[in-house]
């Protein structure tokens, strides 16, 4: 495989991570992006590396692999550039999930018990311990759990570090280059036609995030990845007020409702700059990027239930992004069975920042024919949710909170 | 009489004229401003609490202003919302696909119902009450048309030491002098470019400060070339010229030197400004070596033109146009923007001074309210507006920002004051191909992420990043607007508790 030409389509965090793994493995990698690197979904998330919000199953397994890889990857980045590694703002701060209703407490306890069987550390906090860990959180809670493995990164910095590693390993970057279609020969993709000319290669990786559906359609191998909008509020810088990633568990027990409706839940955490980030919302509105005050209002109300003392804090900015959503809530990682040479790495919905490094490692295993770090079949491309745009939505496969990272 | 509901945002010269124009056309008007009194920066008044006996000192066109104010505020169809801020504009759903266009009945164009299908202007989200008070009320307005007249603020280029206490934007210094009768210092230097240097100097002198020097950065040749093109246009700006002549006379009376081709390139001091370094500049604003001079001061006022406050127009979806002096809202002959039902007037469409802003406002208000487009008065307003635009262009030509200004910067010079991001960090981000994209560099350097939300440093950071990285501007994609320094979907800070509260009906006492 040495010298195999790979084109990674998309320079977000998943594309950057894939480029890094493949370039370090000795492949001849070119990263192509329609715009600029790390500027779309990657730059509009909260940057979570979480295990706490995933129930037992393949996504949790990928999350745990990723969580182990992150410190290793960043140590290697630091060897290359201490500055690039610092810009990642890696913070293994841990997550705290708080329930404020009896039903929420029950759901949280059951969820954590199941997670523990899969090896996740989930520690019950009593009222005193919670008050010590998060002095400003509501006293009006019914249960709280601490997940010490949860971490946070500055997502654009993380993507830039991974892409920088790839470039240092010999990868090339082409920005402002939009894919128009595929050049194929005998059922195999041999090139992509772009706004800046034909790019030929042996392998192509679709890592276009929420635009993966549109990109794959241009390549005549459509996968059903759609955008799902989230909005984040940013407060003015505060003295230390929120010490972990703190989120609301009341939806843990609830099975996902109608996917197009607005769903909100509180996710509150601080950043290195001192601002507090407040999410989260989920809406299926296509790529509509208009601000909706009622959505921000609902997010704010949920956050105040967790942190009533933040009521007087000014919100100075709001931003939104689009998560790559797959109807069965599982990523798409693997070869496209319809078009030889085309691979997909995406569909992580709100978990792509954290899952990027594990996804890239798994993709490398599959591309090079190595022993995979986990069974990749749950992520395969030829499953009904991915290939059939009208396939029934499998919302009961895992208990998900509404708290993943592209809030 | 149209009885449309018009919301006018901003009660400076343009907004006040817009309110008057809309009322004259028979509309109901809600006039919104964050200040406690109308007038904007131009007619900034002492707060009523001061019970000033001569509030008109330092004011131009005071009598006419008072007359207009009485007409607007006393009008039964005008609601004056002081201390109110528009924190968001919510764009309506796009018009339904016009797939029936092909088989559309050609007569439908005259269908009176067609108006109702027109996309509406954005919903206006307002916070009412003093910004520092705790009792602000959230409310929303759904006008038939919206006039944006939110004005501009000083653009200030960074230079070593500009973050020191004692360095003011010229606008802030003037606001303190006019609004509070507070002088920013005893020994002041005023530097930058543009005719605004003069009224600022005048305000400071009248308020009792000593102004040591007024420094225009552009060379006499640049200024003269800019002003001398199409000299016949200047005659139409007699009001403005008269005002400038008064300021010049005042400067002469106080023996304040006005120097061209020189500026403040550094401020120094221990904890606050104690001295400045001024230097002679070439036409491109590079420093002439050896021309540096130090001067003991306790205040520096700087202005390098104006940044229009574009967050609301951008939130409304209005198209912008690039000009010599930067980006402004694009408007048509009636001050209508590219968005249906949204009009713009005053400095967000070009910096041409108060007389032009008044003409634009009156035209925008009249037309937003559905007033007759073809009366003699409207034609007069258009002419006056066009003269104002010509003046604005002349102003931009006479007082450009020289391309070599980044030569003043040192690696440790702070570029974003809120986040204390320095020039070196910007250079480093721009040099990294993986991290030079505008959004990524912003998150890495934090320049523009602080409480002012890039209102001060935004254009500067965008310019420096583009120059340093040499990267072409990002292209717009579906769901991914170009990262522009004016994109601020949240136009004003709003407390979490205020945001969480449900909006109340607008016309409650």
From TrEMBL, chain A:
InterPro entries, sorted: FAD-dep_OxRdtase (IPR006076), FAD/NAD-bd_sf (IPR036188)
Highest taxon above the source species: Bacteria
Domain FAD dependent oxidoreductase residues, every copy: 5-364
Signal peptide location: none
Gene Ontology MF: a single term: oxidoreductase activity
Pfam families for this protein: DAO
Enzyme class: oxidoreductase
Keyword terms, alphabetized: Oxidoreductase
EC number of this enzyme: 1.-.-.-
Organism this protein belongs to: Streptomyces cavernicola
Region Disordered, residue ranges: 379-407
Descriptive protein name: FAD-dependent oxidoreductase
TrEMBL record, chain B:
InterPro entries referenced in this protein's UniProt entry, alphabetically: BFD-like_2Fe2S-bd_dom_sf, FAD/NAD-bd_sf, FAD/NAD-binding_dom, Metab_Enz_Cyan_OpOx_G3PDH, Opine_Oxase_asu/HCN_bsu
Region (Disordered): 90-139, 469-509
Domain FAD/NAD(P)-binding residue range list: 137-361
The keyword Oxidoreductase is annotated on this UniProt entry: yes
Entry keywords, A to Z: Oxidoreductase
Signal peptide limits: none
Basic and acidic residues biased stretches: 90-120
Protein name per its UniProtKB record: FAD-dependent oxidoreductase
Lineage, broadest ranks: Bacteria, Bacillati, Actinomycetota, Actinomycetes, Kitasatosporales
């Amino acid at each position: 495989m040495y010298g195999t030409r790979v084109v990674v389509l998309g320079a977000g965090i998943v594309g950057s991570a894939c480029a890094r793994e493949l370039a370090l493995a000795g492949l001849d990698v070119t990263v192509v992006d329609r715009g600029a690197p790390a500027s779309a979904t990657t730059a509009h998330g909260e940057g979570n590396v979480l295990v706490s919000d995933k129930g037992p199953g393949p996504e949790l397994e990928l999350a745990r692999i990723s969580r182990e890889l992150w410190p290793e990857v960043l140590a290697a980045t630091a060897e290359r550039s201490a500055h690039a590694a610092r810009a990642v703002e890696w913070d293994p701060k841990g997550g705290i999930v708080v329930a404020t209703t009896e039903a929420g407490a029950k759901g949280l306890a059951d969820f954590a018990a199941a997670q523990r069987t899969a090896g996740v550390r989930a520690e019950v906090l009593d009222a005193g311990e919670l008050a010590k860990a998060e002095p400003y959180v509501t006293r009006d809670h019914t249960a709280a759990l601490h997940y010490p493995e949860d971490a946070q990164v500055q997502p654009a910095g993380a993507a830039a570090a991974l892409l920088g590693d790839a470039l240092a390993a010999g990868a090339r970057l082409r920005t402002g280059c939009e894919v128009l279609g595929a050049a194929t020969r005998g059922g195999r993709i041999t090139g992509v036609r772009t706004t800046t000319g034909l790019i030929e290669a042996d392998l192509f990786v679709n890592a276009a995030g929420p635009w993966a559906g549109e990109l794959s359609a241009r390549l005549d191998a459509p996968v059903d990845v759609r955008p799902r909008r989230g909005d984040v509020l940013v407060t003015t810088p505060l003295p230390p007020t929120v010490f972990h990633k703190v989120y609301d568990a009341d939806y843990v027990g609830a099975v996902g409702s109608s996917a197009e409706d607005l769903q909100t839940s509180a996710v509150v955490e601080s950043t290195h700059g001192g601002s507090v980030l407040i999410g989260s919302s989920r809406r299926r509105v296509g790529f509509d990027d208009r601000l909706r005050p009622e959505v921000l209002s609902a997010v704010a109300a949920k956050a105040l239930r967790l942190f009533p003392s933040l009521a007087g804090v000014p919100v100075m900015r709001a931003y939104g992004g689009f998560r790559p959503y797959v109807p069965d809530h599982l990523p798409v990682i693997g070869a496209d069975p319809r078009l030889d040479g085309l691979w997909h790495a995406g569909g992580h919905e709100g978990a792509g920042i954290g899952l990027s490094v594990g996804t890239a490692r798994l993709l490398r295993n599959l591309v090079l024919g190595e022993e995979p770090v986990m069974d990749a079949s749950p992520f395969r491309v030829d499953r009904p949710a991915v290939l059939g745009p009208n396939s029934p939505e499998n919302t009961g496969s895992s208990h998900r909170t509404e708290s993943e990272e592209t809030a | 009489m149209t009885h449309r509901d018009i919301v006018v945002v901003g009660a400076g010269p343009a907004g006040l004229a817009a309110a008057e124009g809309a009322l004259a056309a028979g509309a109901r008007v809600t006039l919104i401003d964050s200040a406690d009194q109308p007038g904007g920066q131009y007619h900034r008044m002492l707060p009523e609490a001061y019970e000033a006996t001569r509030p008109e000192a330092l004011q131009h066109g005071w009598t006419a202003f008072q007359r207009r104010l009485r007409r607007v505020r006393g009008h039964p169809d005008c609601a004056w919302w002081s201390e109110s801020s528009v924190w968001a504009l919510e764009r309506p759903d796009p018009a339904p696909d016009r797939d029936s266009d092909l088989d559309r009945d050609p007569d439908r164009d005259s269908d009176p119902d067609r108006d109702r299908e027109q996309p509406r202007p954005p919903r206006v989200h307002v916070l009412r009450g003093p910004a520092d008070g705790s009792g602000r009320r959230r409310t929303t307005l759904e006008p038939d048309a919206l006039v944006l007249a939110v004005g501009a603020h000083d653009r200030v280029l960074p230079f070593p030491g500009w973050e020191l206490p004692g360095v003011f934007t010229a606008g802030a210094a003037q606001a303190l002098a006019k609004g509070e009768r507070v002088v920013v210092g005893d020994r002041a230097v005023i530097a930058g470019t543009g005719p605004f240097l003069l009224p600022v100097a005048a305000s400071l002198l009248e308020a009792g400060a000593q102004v040591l020097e007024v420094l225009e950065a552009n060379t006499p040749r640049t200024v003269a070339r800019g002003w001398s093109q199409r000299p016949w246009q200047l005659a139409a700006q007699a009001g403005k010229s008269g005002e400038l002549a008064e300021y010049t006379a005042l400067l002469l009376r106080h023996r304040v030197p006005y120097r061209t081709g020189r500026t403040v390139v550094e401020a120094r001091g221990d904890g606050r400004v104690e001295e400045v370094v001024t230097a002679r500049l070439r036409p491109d604003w590079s420093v002439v070596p050896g021309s540096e001079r130090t001067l003991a001061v306790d205040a520096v006022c700087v202005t390098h033109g104006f940044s229009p406050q574009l967050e609301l127009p951008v939130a409304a979806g209005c198209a912008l146009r690039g000009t010599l002096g930067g980006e402004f809202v694009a408007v048509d002959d009636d001050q209508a923007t590219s968005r249906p039902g949204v009009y713009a007037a005053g400095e967000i469409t070009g910096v041409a001074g108060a007389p032009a802003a008044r003409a634009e406002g009156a035209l925008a208000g009249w037309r937003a309210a559905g007033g007759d487009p073809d009366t003699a008065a409207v034609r007069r307003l258009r002419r006056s507006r066009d003269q104002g635009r010509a003046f604005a262009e002349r102003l931009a030509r006479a007082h450009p920002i020289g391309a070599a200004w980044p030569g003043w910067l040192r690696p440790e010079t702070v570029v974003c004051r809120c986040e204390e991001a320095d020039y070196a960090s910007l250079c480093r981000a721009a040099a990294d191909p993986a991290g030079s994209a505008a959004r990524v560099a912003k998150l890495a350097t934090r320049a523009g992420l602080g409480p002012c939300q890039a209102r001060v440093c935004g254009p500067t950071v965008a310019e420096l990043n583009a120059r340093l990285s040499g990267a072409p501007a990002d292209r717009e994609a579906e769901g991914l607007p170009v990262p522009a320094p004016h994109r601020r979907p949240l136009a004003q800070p709003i407390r979490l508790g205020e945001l969480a509260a449900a909006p109340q009906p607008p016309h409650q006492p």
